[in-house]
From TrEMBL:
Places the protein is found: Cytoplasm; Nucleus
Main subcellular localisation: cytoplasm
Domain of life assignment: Eukaryota
Name listed for the protein in its UniProt record: 60S ribosomal export protein NMD3
Family listed: Belongs to the NMD3 family.
Keywords (A to Z) from UniProt: Cytoplasm, Nucleus, Protein transport, Transport
InterPro entries according to UniProt: Nmd3, Nmd3_N, NMD_SH3, OB_NMD3
Domain 60S ribosomal export protein NMD3 SH3 intervals: 246-292
Domain 60S ribosomal export protein NMD3 OB-fold, residue spans: 310-395
UniProt source species: Neolecta irregularis (strain DAH-3)
Domain Nmd3 N-terminal: 20-243
Keyword match Cytoplasm: yes
Gene Ontology molecular function: any one: large ribosomal subunit rRNA binding
Length: 499
């Protein structure tokens, strides 16, 4: 019985083992009747896969062409570039880059593929594909060099003496990345021009502006070319966007009809904030109201005075009246003009909405109405005996500002192109003053600061770091100086690149 079993096992081994038809070595039975080495030499599973290819690269915008006509960003040896290389190659199992010199204009990819050579016989083979990077200008860059750079533009204008509103709008655009579709931004005298390669990008920008600031728009179009055979026309579209000429901390005077329609509020008001509507406050009663954009353009009103006409006063005494509205408190304040201290003893008692933040010894800035002439018929129609002598607007910190302390934070800015005419020295100084005033507004207004992104300044120590190293000190009289806490600062600042 045992002999029969041994004979059967020998027969099974003889059946399972055969000789390779090419080299004659014993191998296990397979449909090809060949050993693995002979299969590899006689069968090429990479047949039909090209060993060389071309990658089209635009040197201007540094993008690669993804057929048929899409241009994509891809860094060297990135997943995006590998996907672009393998898009037309099939039957792939593994792929990775082989390092090459950046200036060689070559991209080498090593591939490992598997394929069924015969029935139930799968082979695996590795090989290299070399891609030659050739220069080809993309359509967007071609239009740029041909000075046919845009199909739609958005022209934003505001007729005011300062650019604080534009600086705030610039930060809103950066935070929401509303400029991502434009290919150029040009700074002009009264605003900014945004240029777009397509009409949809300009429409998105106009919609964004309507949601964040009170504006009115006007659309126009210009015929560029016309094909009479196909009835195809090419247009350039332009949206003219006008911002209201009212800014934060401006003094305004409403018409009597408009004041009655807003709940019979006082005609003489302060602008506390500008969002998608105008927020006004009566500093004598703490009453507030909002003027919607359509209401303003139906019954427009002008600014009586702006921040350039603010006068500095010193607070001598504060008496709270008990009436509050949010962070504001009504108070009677005894003040004197800072420039008159030591010259005369003239003092004023005024009612203000800043009672919660003022204390004796502080300084505040306000409008001195009795020494200012306003050429406004609505203001002249008011009963002058009922008007206050002074309207305080905001608390100021002149002693701390004189120290010129460097800020440990910074803001991003748009990549703007200047016009051909260089700005004058006076204009540059005025822009620097407006920018400094905007930075102070961010420090003092928490609500305004929450709408923008503020970043850490890596080259300057934070407040806590300075205290640990003995660099930064804080005086007792500056304890309430508004500073942006470190918790509100973002770590990294990534510059946006226009594509």
């Amino acid at each position: 019985m045992e002999n029969l079993v041994d004979e059967q096992m020998v027969m099974d081994e003889q059946i399972a083992t055969i000789l390779c038809c090419s080299c004659g070595i014993p191998i296990l039975h397979n449909p090809a009747a060949m050993c693995i080495d002979c299969l590899k030499t006689s069968t090429d599973i990479t047949e039909g896969i090209p060993r060389e290819a071309v990658l089209n690269f635009c040197r201007s915008c540094e993008r690669f062409l993804s057929p048929p006509s899409q241009w994509v960003n891809a860094q060297p040896e990135s997943r995006e570039l590998l996907a672009l290389c393998l898009r037309k190659l099939r039957g792939l199992n593994k792929a990775w880059f082989i390092w090459t010199e950046p200036h060689s204009r070559r991209v080498r990819v090593k591939l490992t593929i598997q394929k069924e050579a015969f029935v139930s016989t799968i082979l695996q083979q590795s090989f290299e594909v070399e891609y030659v990077v050739t220069n080809q200008q993309c359509l967007d860059c071609a239009k740029l060099h041909a000075k046919n750079t845009w199909k739609a533009s958005v022209q934003i204008r505001q007729k005011v003496q300062h650019k604080r509103t534009f600086l705030y709008l610039e930060q809103l655009i950066l935070k929401h990345n509303a400029h991502r579709d434009c290919n150029n931004i040009v700074e002009v005298k009264d605003g900014l021009d945004f240029f777009y390669p397509s009409r949809n990008g300009a429409i998105k920008m106009v919609d964004f502006l309507n949601n964040v600031v009170p504006v009115r728009t006007k659309k126009s179009e210009e015929l560029i070319s016309m094909d009479v055979h196909t009835s195809t026309n090419t247009y350039k579209f332009t949206w003219s966007v006008e911002l209201i000429p009212i800014c934060k901390d401006d003094l305004v005077c409403l018409s009597g009809k408009l004041a009655k329609s807003l709940g019979n509020i006082s005609q003489l008001l302060l602008c506390s904030r500008v969002g998608n509507s105008i927020h006004l406050i009566d500093p004598l009663t703490l009453r507030t109201t909002d003027v919607a954009c359509p209401v303003y353009w139906r019954t427009p009103f002008c600014t009586l005075a702006d921040i350039h006409e603010l006068v500095e006063f010193t607070v001598l005494d504060v008496e709270l009246l008990g009436q509050t509205h949010g962070r504001l408190a009504l108070a009677d304040v005894e003040i004197a003009k800072s420039s008159d201290l030591g010259v005369n003893d003239q003092q004023y008692t005024v009612r203000t909405h800043l009672g919660a933040i003022l204390k004796p010894g502080d300084t505040a800035r306000g409008y001195h109405l009795t020494t200012t002439n306003f050429n406004d018929p609505e203001y002249e129609s008011l009963d002058q005996s009922l008007l206050p002598d002074i309207i305080l607007v905001k608390k100021s910190y002149p002693n701390r500002r004189k120290k010129n302390k460097t800020r440990n934070w910074k803001l991003r800015t748009l990549s703007k192109e200047q016009t051909e005419m260089n700005p004058r020295k006076q204009d540059i100084e005025k822009q620097e003053r407006d920018y400094e005033e905007f930075l102070r507004d961010l420090e003092e207004d928490t609500e305004m600061r929450s709408m923008v992104n503020v970043y850490k300044h890596k080259d300057r120590p934070t407040k806590m770091e300075g205290l640990d190293e003995g660099i930064v000190g804080e005086d007792e009289d500056d304890a309430d100086f508004p500073e942006i806490p470190i918790e509100e600062l973002l770590d990294e600042m990534h510059e946006m690149k226009l594509e």
